[in-house]
Design a protein that fits this description.
single chain, 4-stranded antiparallel sheet, flat, 1410 residues, 5-stranded antiparallel sheet
């Protein structure tokens, strides 16, 4: 027996089987597997109990089944009785299946059955080998496949989309209802050695039977694992098996024993847990696992039913919730207070690590390795979404009841409860519930099924609005201030947001229009279930009942601050904290409900909210009619003509309603409609049109109704329409409407003969003051005099004039003047003008035209009058045209009226100085005009109208007065402007003068401006320097000065500061090293030392060296010596003393600090001794210096030049030959001595040949070099000693330099060759060859050539050179000629005059190149 796969039913559609009938079927629900190993411990005595005690003898339990809601357990025994137990094992009910109606009759015995998950069909197997499908809805069955062997077992897979059937011949057949994604095929996949009574489809296919072996097969039908218990004498045959809902655990039952196997996804193997042995349990015949996986129940051969607790672990959370881990991927959460249970499971089979209850104990959060589980315990909505491991750093926000907001690493994820996909993901750094608004189908809207929107902050000033359904951005709102609160309304049409300046803004998402609706907003909220907004502005409560009209706001004064908004039981209260008490301000629920009903499309509710009960009742009646017609006729009831007619009546479109009624032949309904509306004319018209039998009665009823309702006027009109004019006149007179009676009498001539009626009407008209109508009536009866009087009394002058022109022509003029006077009294001046003209009253016409501002008519009338009359109006006319800026017309009338001064003033006030000046010159005498303009200018100056005053001065050529005026007012820009135009020769002096004056007023910026305008930026820099405003001085020097000016200012600025501040300043500008160099060159050594010691110690040796050289120039040799030593330039000190022939000091310094220089000192003294012919003393010095060869050289220089060297050469060469032939072991020594002697007599070529013959290649090369045998030297280096080839090249380069062979040098060392050409002044060749070496080399020699030209005064040629080749910018080309010159002079003390002269010449050339 089993429950059907319902949702929460306890026992609906339960069936059973007997013989050849299907009556009971098994409900089976499976779950996907987890990824971790399960270690089940079946607890029997402690964690479970026997819910049905075994009997003595066979009483087999045939089947067990749990209800889908886990609340009931059904047990079926051999006596065909169903026992019902609750989830704790307590018996609740018992009933027999014998009276049940048979369904699905079969021709063969039913051997087994299952009810797959989420299905309305039962799958059952027959003894003839067929597998059939029975649909419980249609009560029809069909065969899905057949075999030749009896079906002994059935089981579904975990998804319920496939089944396995086991057969008596050992075959196992697979069948799929739908593709489950496993990729397996259908048909027989396994041939088991014994009948597969135990058959389970979990992570693998588990098959067992009477051979006491358990096989695990893969989807391909191959054996994956085998557990063999055939050699265990205590084990019996396996009878039944069951899988946990997750498919991760399988239990196999036999005699007194339950074996448990757990699936390990990581190793893809099954592990056996400790078996559960229960003595006297006997054979297990049925197994069933509770749908939540928490319990397993087993039935035995003797009728016993055992209940096992199957949880992994159990824990209590906050003493409020019990969490039972029934599997790695399934947890049961139970509320200990309410008893409510929620099954939290991973649909992907992942292990649940931990479960937390959050959000005021309403929401649960669980983690797996790859997913996140969320749930709403109140609404029992669970979700599982993919979620990669984040280390538990995510934050959860549960402020929204429909969606969970998850923030992790700058990313916001939204999960809708009950959905297994992430609703949306956005990037944002602002995870404050007040800065995020999510709306999920919170109000039903017409034609919108799914409304899910999100508003969030991209940054503090930008809002993004996203459609979560479509996945695109609806709008982006950019704001000028930081936003601290935002929220959409429930329909997602509007967005409210507030910024840090407390400005409340409204944004329409559809139109993307924005408006600020409130300033200083301290609290704001949408009213729930409406589009009404409540906000606080200081001590005001602000309510927008119609947010579309945001300019209309309802405000209430209040005390305190809003703390909450409550809407319950048809009442909306704003809770305001007023000190220690909280006061409720109730809003107008009718207005709130109206707006909500309007958005929801419930118009009856709209009228109810407005208090219009009649329209609400009418609409409800229309809705009832529509529903009735829908039931009677089908379709949409609102499309029926009767409903449309009713709606047309509501819209007051009665003609449409009439048409709809008449189209359906409902004439009475149309007539009744008009009668109900008291539209008798329309009702009668419809009746007449359709020839209704009651038309006459309708007319009588209509007239009587008019009389009864005192509508005599309408009744008179009816009589007039019927042609009964006397009755109509009497009715009009009765109703007090003599004018209408007169109209009838005038319109119908037959009444004019009845004088009594006419007189009665006229008297009534006069009494009512209707004089014009009475005059018309008198005129009709030819009583013209009485008619004229009536017209004049009634001020009907038009009718009176028309009558007078015909009957009394002489009275027309008088009547026109009277008419004009009347119009003037009525303030109708413009209308009176023409009547005065008709009457010949010109003065009255002019006055009327002036007062009515009809100036064109004034001009026309005045121009037609004599001058005596017209003159007094000229000034008024001119003033008018001046006001209209029609100065020509104004001037004309001023001149005609002789108002010259007024005309001049007019042009002056209009700034038309030229015209004004012309009039003044024309009509004023002498200097009167100039004095007039000067006085006008002075007056304008006192009024602050300097521009106008300037124009006056310029007009009369008094520019200096304008300049003086601007100077007095300190408006220097205007002053300079005028000086530039009228005194350009004084412009420079003016700028300088103004700058100095501004300095005295401490207006340095303005002074700077004038210095710069005068192209005197140095004065501006000096001004700022004198005021210690170094930043401005630096700015001006850098922006306007020369290339090095700003560096000098920075240097002086730093020098004025000193210490660390100077270092920081120069480092900031990147001028520290340059400042040190500049200080050194300018002999500011102390400042240079301060800078270098603080931030650039590497420059200290250079500073010491420069200071030493400076002291040497001043003759302070001892101090210079100390500085040379500090600079690690002891040799320089030695050379200094040598140069000054202070040999003792040179010797002392050399011995103490530079021993290598001791020999140089000795050599220097020896050279001086030789020059003085003190040979013994010179020889002593040379021997002490260990340089005897120099002694020989000097002696040779002094010796007789006629010595016979040829014989010596022959002897020495012979000695070498003998040693080679007879004593080869001494060849090297002999050759060395001979070659040395040959060298002493300058027979270098012979010495080189000897060295080559004895393989002393280095010495041979040196000899070839000395005799300039370069070809032989190169040949030896190339053929015999390649390692000396660079040495030969170097020596050759030096030789070419000494010989001045620049062209040959280019082939060896390009730079050296170019230098030689430059030194010789062959600049054209130098530049020509440098151009071939690239831009950098070319720049170097262009710079040197240009320097040479500049030194010669040929600057024009230098400029042409730069124009042709470009100016070099590399500082590396600057050579310190001073150092070269010093070095050359010192070397001269040692090397002799000739060498010294050469060095000095080279030094001078280098300095010249600078």
């Amino acid at each position: 027996a089993s429950y059907c796969n319902g949702v929460d039913n306890d026992l609906n559609d339960t069936q059973y089987s007997s013989n050849n009938e299907i009556r009971i079927s098994r409900c089976s629900q499976f779950w996907r597997h987890s990824i971790l190993k399960i270690n089940w411990q079946l607890q029997h005595k402690d964690g479970g109990h026997a819910i049905k005690v075994s009997q003595d003898g066979a009483a087999k339990v045939l089947a067990l089944a749990w209800s889908p809601n886990n609340a009931k357990l059904a047990v079926v025994t051999t006596d065909r009785v169903v026992l019902l137990f609750d989830d704790t094992g307590e018996k609740k009910d018992k009933f027999s299946t014998k009276p049940a109606d048979s369904k699905f009759l079969q021709q063969s015995a039913v051997t087994c059955s299952i009810w797959p998950a989420e299905s309305h069909s039962i799958v059952y197997g027959l003894a003839d080998g067929k597998i059939r499908l029975a649909n419980t809805k249609t009560n029809k069955s069909q065969t899905i496949y057949g075999t030749d062997s009896c079906v002994i077992s059935l089981c579904p897979n975990t998804s319920g989309k496939g089944i396995l059937s086991g057969h008596a011949d050992g075959s196992v057949v697979r069948y799929f209802f739908d593709d489950d994604g496993s990729g397996g095929g259908q048909g027989q996949i396994i041939k088991h050695p014994v009948p597969p009574y135990c058959l389970t489809w979990a992570a693998s296919i588990i098959v067992a039977g009477c051979d006491r072996r358990i096989y695990m097969y893969g989807n391909d039908g191959k054996v994956q694992q085998q557990f063999d218990y055939s050699k265990d004498d205590t084990e019996k045959e396996f009878t039944v098996s069951a899988s946990s809902p997750s498919g991760q655990t399988v239990v196999v039952g036999s005699f007194d024993r339950l074996r448990v196997y757990n699936w390990s996804p990581r190793r893809a193997t099954w592990d056996e847990s400790k078996a559960k042995n229960i003595t006297n349990l006997y054979t297990i015949t049925a197994l069933s696992w509770k749908k939540d996986g928490s319990r397993l129940v087993a039935g035995t051969l003797c009728g016993g039913v055992e209940l096992f607790d199957c949880c992994l672990r159990r824990s209590v959370y906050k003493n409020k919730f019990e969490m039972t881990y029934v599997g790695p991927s399934q947890v049961i959460v139970k509320n200990l207070i309410s008893g409510a249970r929620v099954v939290l499971k991973s649909h992907y089979g992942y292990e649940i690590d931990k479960v937390r209850i959050m959000g005021k104990d309403r929401y649960l959060v669980g983690h797996t390795t790859d997913t996140l589980l969320l749930g709403d315990l109140t609404n029992n909505k669970l979700s599982e979404v993919p979620w990669q491991g984040t280390g538990g750093n995510e934050k959860f926000f549960f402020e929204n009841e429909n969606v969970c907001m998850i923030f992790n690493a700058g990313e916001l994820s939204l999960v809708e409860y009950g959905e297994n996909e992430i609703l949306g993901m956005v990037r944002t750094e602002f995870m404050n519930p007040h800065l995020i608004s999510v709306r999920i189908n919170e109000r039903k809207q017409k034609k919108i099924d799914d409304n899910k929107k999100l508003a969030y902050l991209i940054d503090l000033k930008t809002i993004s609005i996203v459609d979560l359904v479509m996945g695109f951005t609806l709008a982006t709102v950019n704001h000028d201030s930081k936003i601290d609160w935002l929220e959409m309304n429930e329909t997602c049409h509007k967005l409210l947001f507030r910024d840090k300046k407390l400005r409340l803004n409204l944004y329409d998402i559809a139109s993307q229009n924005r408006a600020t609706i409130l300033n200083y907003c301290t609290w704001v909220q949408w009213v729930p279930l409406s589009d009404v907004v409540v906000a606080q502005n200081r001590n005001n409560l602000c309510v927008w009942y119609n947010i579309d009209a945001h300019e209309r706001v309802t405000m209430f004064p209040m005390k305190g601050d809003i703390v909450d908004l409550e809407r319950n039981n048809g009442k909306t209260d704003v809770m305001v904290s007023e000190g220690v008490t909280t006061v409720a301000y109730t809003l107008d629920e009718g207005l709130i409900e109206f707006a909500t009903a309007l958005d929801d499309g419930d118009y009856a509710r709209c009228f109810t909210a407005l208090g219009d009960v009649s329209k609400a009742r009418y609409l409800r009646s229309v809705n009832e009619l529509s529903d009735r017609l829908k039931e009677e006729m089908g379709g949409d009831g609102t499309d029926h003509s009767l409903v449309k007619a009713k709606l047309a009546i509501l819209e007051k479109d009665f003609k449409l309603a009439e048409t709809l009624y008449l189209e359906q032949g409902l004439v009475d309904e149309a007539v009744d409609m008009y009668q109900e509306l008291h539209k008798w004319e329309d009702s009668i018209a419809v009746a007449e049109m359709k020839n209704h039998s009651e038309t006459d009665n309708l007319r009588k009823s209509y007239y009587q109704w008019l009389i009864d309702t005192n509508q005599e006027e309408k009744a008179a009109e009816v009589k007039e329409q019927e042609g009964n004019y006397i009755a109509a006149v009497n009715m009009f007179m009765k109703s007090g409407l003599p004018a209408k009676a007169a109209h009838v009498a005038i319109t119908h001539p037959e009444l004019s003969s009845q004088s009594d009626i006419m007189d009665r009407i006229a008297s009534a008209l006069l009494n009512d003051g209707l004089f014009e109508k009475a005059g018309e009536l008198y005129e009709k009866t030819r009583q013209n005099q009485r008619a004229l009087e009536a017209y004049r009394k009634g001020r009907a002058y038009r009718r009176a004039v028309e009558l007078t022109r015909v009957s009394y022509p002489a009275e027309v003029t008088k009547l026109e003047e009277e008419w004009g006077d009347y119009l003037v009294s009525q303030k109708q001046l413009d209308a009176a003008i023409n009547h005065y003209i008709e009457a010949g009253c010109a003065v009255k016409a002019i006055e009327a035209a002036i007062h009515s501002r009809q100036w064109n008519k004034v001009v026309q009338i005045v121009d037609l009058q004599d001058k005596s009359i017209a003159k007094k109006y000229f000034k008024q006319i001119a003033t008018h045209f001046a006001g209209k800026k029609d100065y020509k017309m104004a001037e004309e009338y001023y001149i005609r009226g002789e108002y010259y001064r007024e005309a001049i003033d007019m042009y002056s006030h209009a700034n038309l100085w030229k015209q004004s000046h012309e009039l003044a010159r024309k009509y004023m005498k002498g200097k009167e005009a100039s004095n007039f303009y000067i006085s006008q200018a002075e007056e304008l100056k006192t009024q602050g109208k300097f521009k106008e005053a300037e124009k006056l001065y310029i007009t009369i050529h008094e520019e200096d007065l304008a300049i003086s005026m601007y100077k007095e007012q300190h408006q220097y820009d205007d002053m300079v402007r005028l000086v530039e135009v009228y005194h350009p020769d004084l412009l420079h002096e003016t700028h300088i003068h103004l700058a100095k004056e501004l300095i005295g007023n401490n207006q340095f910026r303005q002074a700077e401006h004038h210095f710069l305008e005068a192209s005197d930026w140095k004065s501006a820099v000096n001004m700022y320097r004198s005021k210690d405003m170094w930043e401005d001085a630096y700015r001006v020097a850098k922006q306007y000065g020369s290339q090095n000016a700003y560096k000098q200012v920075a240097y002086l600025w730093a020098k004025s500061m000193g210490g660390d501040s100077a270092v920081k300043l120069l480092s900031k500008f990147g001028l520290l090293e340059a400042a040190i160099d500049f200080a050194t060159e300018s002999s500011a050594f102390n400042f240079a030392f301060d800078l270098a010691k603080t931030a650039m110690t590497s420059k200290l040796p250079d500073i010491y060296l420069k200071r030493a050289m400076h002291l040497e120039d001043e003759g302070k040799f001892a101090e210079a010596e100390a500085e040379f030593i500090k600079a690690n330039k002891a040799k320089e000190a030695v050379l200094m003393y040598v140069h000054n022939q202070d040999w003792d000091s040179a010797q002392r310094v050399a011995e103490q600090h530079d021993p290598d220089s001791v020999s140089d000192v000795m050599i220097g003294q020896a050279r001086v001794a030789f020059e003085r012919k003190e040979f013994q003393r010179a020889e002593t010095f040379l021997l002490r210096a260990q340089r005897p060869e120099l002694a020989i050289k000097y002696y040779k220089i002094k010796a007789d030049p006629d010595v016979d060297t040829k014989s010596l050469e022959k002897c020495w060469q012979r000695a070498v030959e003998i040693s080679i032939k007879f004593v080869p072991d001494r060849t090297i020594d002999v050759a060395s001595i001979v070659c040395r002697r040959l060298a002493e007599i300058e027979s270098y070529l012979q010495a080189a040949d000897i060295y080559t013959n004895v393989d002393m290649f280095k010495e041979a090369i040196e000899m070839y070099v000395k005799c300039s045998a370069w070809d032989k030297a190169k040949q030896v280096a190339a053929d015999m000693a390649p390692k000396y080839k660079p040495y030969v090249d170097k020596m050759y380069s030096e030789y070419l330099k000494k010989q001045g062979k620049a062209i040959e040098m280019l082939n060896v060392d390009v730079i050296a060759g170019l230098d030689m050409l430059a030194q010789r002044g062959e600049w054209e060749k130098c530049i020509e060859n440098a151009q071939q070496q690239g831009a950098e080399v070319l720049s170097k020699y262009v710079a040197r050539f240009a320097a040479s030209l500049i030194k010669e005064g040929n600057t024009e040629r230098a400029m042409e050179l730069f124009v042709k080749y470009g100016a070099p910018a590399n500082k590396a080309y600057v050579i310190n000629g001073d150092l070269i010159a010093r070095f050359a002079l010192r070397q001269g003390s040692i090397l002799g005059i000739r060498e010294s002269v050469d060095l000095v010449l080279q030094s001078l050339q280098a300095v010249s190149a600078l």
